[in-house]
């Protein structure tokens, strides 16, 4: 995802923000990462709803849907494929932690192809870093992402596509940049995210669409052993959609089981 | 702490940073807040050492002491009293969590008096938010400060100076913007910070100086009950120095016990 993106800050074509913005000072804000497919941001309404929900959790004023649609128009024609990041911070305010500020909104559009992954499936590792529990922030895609940064820093082997994150109690949470699902005995399960992790839009869509398709799909308390015992493991996020996992450390899943049915559901 | 600070970014008199700086994108960086007293940043060497230690924890290249001293000169004459914030981020890099970037350093100097507090002591409340455990980040003054922001957002009564933070297990950690000490039976104790919290420069100085002065001073596993049972409670940070606590919720400490001996130690 090389290259310089087009940027829009509070509706203006600018490329920088005040150095004292609370997004930088304290990570006081939230963001969304969207795929641009066929010249349009995929799952736009779902992303806007999640942005509003995350802002509400932090008592942060969320820009309205009309304003964000106007911003999107102002960015200019979208590429056929690309990535759009929407960031909302608490903006500028007095020094100190008190949550006072005038929100800043940042749109960044990368006009470059989406990351590619092998059709045979992803290769995953298990990260050493364990996620801490913070129910007040769990599920939110906020700007406090140092745990993800540290976990992603654990490997630089380009054949490893994703890292599995466990929490301090050893429970399964997610990937570093994705949510995880497993299929076992006719059930589609994904870790509960009420203690830590990010509850992504692709995950919510899949839970909903799988249910509508007559599959049993639910959140559960899971462990690494559940992944290893699964008939199939899947990872999803807004950029890569849903992908099957081919290898996790020394465990391999050579054959697809449920993914051929699930992937078209999410992509529909 | 009103007013616009003077800013220096990577040695240049600028006021904004690229919107894609990893400090904003992920809170990927660290910072220091120093008091300017009599025209000089107080405890400069200790702050630089802590900045370097925190950068090392995040595998972030720390600007050298000479470079930061040059930056300080370039900021121009310092006020008699003021606040200096030094921020180091992982700067600009490719999109994604992988910790790759060219560090950004930001100096901000507020030419305004230090916050004032009553001589009789501080008034504290107990925050509802409980800090999560993350040993990989514990002690570091990193830019992921949403827990502090949420905790500080719990009150707006200006007569309350600070909030007490407990962790998810109910252990005592710190104040929202300060470290805490208690005095009981001839011992000066402060919470261990290996699971969460920020290990500030004032705290480290006080631990060291109290020991040199022949007092027993140590880190310990403490609870709220230990604070309430203390003969005296103290809060410290780099801006306010060391202050005695007069009131915590309904508990009052009308008389100073050890603070008249400790405050000159830290200020020396």
Architecture (CATH level 2) name of the largest domain in chain A: Alpha-Beta Barrel
Strand content of chain A: 25-35%
Radius of gyration of chain A, Cα only, in angstroms?
A: 19 Å
Order of helices and strands of chain A: EEHEEHHEEEHEEEEHEHEEEH
Distance between the termini of chain A: 25 Å
Helices of chain A, by number, come to 7
Q: Shape of chain A, please?
A: globular
- Summing up helix and strand content along with how strands pair, one would put the structural category of chain A as alpha+beta
Largest interface: A-B, 62 and 62 residues
Count of β-strands of chain A: 15
How confident is the prediction overall: mean pLDDT of chain A? Answer: 96
So, the CATH homologous superfamily of the largest domain in chain A?
D-amino Acid Aminotransferase, subunit A, domain 2
CATH class of the largest domain in chain A: Alpha Beta
**Helix fraction bin of chain A:** 10-25%
- Topology-level CATH name of the largest domain in chain A: D-amino Acid Aminotransferase, Chain A, domain 2
Main β sheet profile of chain A: 9 strands, mixed
Q: Tell me which oligomeric state these chains represent.
A: homodimer
Poorly predicted regions of chain A = none
Domain count of chain A: the total is 2
Describe the structure.
The structure is a homodimer. Chain A starts with 5 loop residues before the first strand and ends with a helix. In chain A, α4 links the parallel β7 and β8 (about 160-165). Chain A is α+β, with helices and mostly antiparallel strands and about 270 residues long. Helices cover about 25% and strands about 35% of the residues of chain A. The mean pLDDT of chain A is about 95. Chain A contains seven helices and 15 strands. The longest helix of chain A is centred in the N-terminal third of the chain and has 14 residues, at about 45-55. Chain A is globular. Chain A folds into two domains: about 5-110, 2-Layer Sandwich (D-amino Acid Aminotransferase, Chain A, domain 1), CATH 3.30.470; about 120-265, D-amino Acid Aminotransferase, subunit A, domain 2 (D-amino Acid Aminotransferase, Chain A, domain 2), CATH 3.20.10.10. Chain A has helices at about 20-25, 45-55, 65-75, 145-150, 200-210, 225-230, 260-265; strands at about 5-10, 15-20, 30-35, 40, 80-90, 100-110, 120-130, 160-165, 170-175, 180-185, 185-190, 215-220, 230-235, 240-250, 250. The relative contact order of chain A is 0.15. In chain A, strands 7, 8, 9, 10, 11, 12, 13, 14 and 15 form a nine-stranded mixed sheet that branches. A five-stranded antiparallel sheet of chain A has the order 1-6-5-3-4. The interface between A and B is large, with 62 and 62 residues. β2 of chain A pairs antiparallel with β2 (about 15-20) of chain B.
């Amino acid at each position: 995802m090389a290259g310089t993106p087009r940027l829009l800050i509070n509706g203006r074509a600018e490329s920088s923000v005040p150095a004292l913005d609370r997004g930088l000072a304290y990570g006081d804000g939230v963001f969304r990462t969207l795929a641009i497919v066929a010249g349009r941001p995929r799952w736009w309404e779902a992303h806007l709803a999640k942005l509003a929900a995350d802002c509400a959790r932090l008592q942060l004023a969320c820009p309205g849907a009309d304003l964000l649609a106007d911003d999107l128009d102002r960015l200019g024609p979208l590429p056929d494929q690309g990535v759009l990041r929407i960031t909302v911070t608490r903006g500028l305010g007095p020094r100190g932690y008190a949550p006072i500020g005038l929100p800043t909104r940042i749109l960044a559009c990368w006009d470059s192809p989406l990351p590619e992954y092998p059709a045979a499936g992803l290769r995953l590792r298990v990260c050493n870093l364990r996620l801490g529990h913070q129910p007040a922030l769990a599920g939110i895609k906020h700007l406090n992402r140092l745990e993800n940064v540290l976990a992603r820093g654990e490997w630089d082997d380009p054949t490893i596509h994703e890292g599995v994150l466990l929490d301090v109690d050893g429970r399964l949470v997610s990937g570093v940049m994705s949510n995880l699902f497993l299929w076992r005995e006719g059930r589609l399960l994904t870790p509960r995210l009420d203690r830590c992790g990010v509850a992504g839009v692709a995950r919510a869509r899949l839970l909903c669409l799988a249910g509508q398709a007559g599959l049993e799909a639910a959140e559960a308390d899971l462990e690494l052993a559940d992944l290893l015992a699964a008939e199939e493991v899947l990872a999803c996020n807004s950029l890569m959609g849903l992908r099957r996992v081919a290898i996790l450390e020394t465990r391999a899943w050579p054959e697809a089981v449920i993914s051929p049915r699930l992937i078209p559901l999410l992509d529909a």
